[in-house]
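Researcher: We're teaching a course module on how sequence relates to structure. For the next exercise, students receive a sequence and then see the predicted structure as C-alpha cells, so they can try to spot secondary structure elements on their own. Here is the exercise chain.
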Amino acid sequence: MTTFSWRRAGSVVLRQAYLIRGSLARVLPLFAWVATDMILWGFLTRYLNGVTRSAMDFVPTLLGAVLLWDFFARVMQGVTTAFLEDVWSRNFLNLFASPLSIPEYVAGLVASSIMTSAIGLVVMIALASGIFGLSFFSYGLLLFPFLLTLFVFGIAMGVVASAIVLWFGPASEWFVWPIPAVIAPFAGVFYPVSTLPRWMQAVAFLLPPASVFESMRRIIAGDAVSVGALAWSGGLALIYLLLGTWVFARVHRHAVRVGLIARYSAETVS
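Model: And here is the predicted structure for the students to work with:
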C-alpha cells in the first residue's frame, strides 16, 4: 500500500485551478449565484423590517440564515463539481491508472471545495455586511463552530453525492443538485424546528445544520446556546464525513471490479 502523498492530492487541486482559470463559465458561478441570493434576501429583509411592527430584526435572522445555508451548499457543490469535471471528461481511467489513491483523491476534492467555497463566502460576507449591515459580531465566536459544522457536513454530502454518480453513472448528477433543497425543510433554516411535525423533528435531530440554525436563533433572541447541542451537531457532521468517505471507497471498489469506470457513458443510469 502506498503512503498518502499531499503532492498527489495537490495535483487534483491544481487541475481544478487550471480549469477555473481557463474558463469564464467556471469563474462566474463561484460568486454570481451567492451574490444574487444575498441581494435578493437582503432587500427582502429590509422590506420586512420596514413594513412589520415587530421588534425582530430580520437581517441577522433571515439574511444570516441564507448566508450560512449558501455556504453549506457551496461547500457541497465544490466537491461534486470537482468530481463531475472528471466525469464529464471521462478522466477516471487516467486518474486511477496513476499512483493516486482514493484518500488522496478525496482530499483533493475537499481542498478544491475549500478553494471555491472560500471565494463565495468572502463575497457573501462583503455584500451582507457592506450593503445590508449584517454584523457578525452579533453571533460572537460561535460563528466559527457554525461554519465548521456546516463545512464538514457539506463535505460529507459532497462525497456521498459523488458516490451516487460513481455508482449510477453521469446522468445521475440530477439526483445531486436538489440535495440542499431536500435537506433545508428538515434543517429549520428559516424557522424553528419545533414548528415541524414530530416525524420531521426526529429527522432534524439527526441533521447537523438543525442545531446550528437553532443556536443561531437563540443568540439573536439573547438566550444561552446549548454547548451540548453544538457538540452533538459537530460530532454528527464528523460521523457523516467518515461514513461518506467509507461509502465512496466501497463504491469505487465496486466500480473497478465490475468495470463501470471503463464503461461510463452519459446515458448510464441503472
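Model: If you want an answer key for the exercise: Residues 6-258 form one domain. Residues 265-270 have pLDDT under 50 and may be disordered.
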